[in-house]
Amino acid sequence: MAKHAIIKSFYASDEWITLRLLLISERGNKCSRCNRVIARSKELIGHHIKELTPENVKDHNISLNPDNIKIVCFDCHNKEHKRFGYKGAKEVFLVYGPPMSGKNTFVKQQIERGDMVVDMDTLYAAVSLLPSYDKPDNLFNNVIGIHSQLIDNIKTRYGKWHNAWVIGGYADKYKRNRLADDLGAELIFCDVSQEECLNRLEQDEERQHRKDEWKGYIEKWFDTYTE
Question: Global pTM?
Answer without folding.
Answer: 0.64
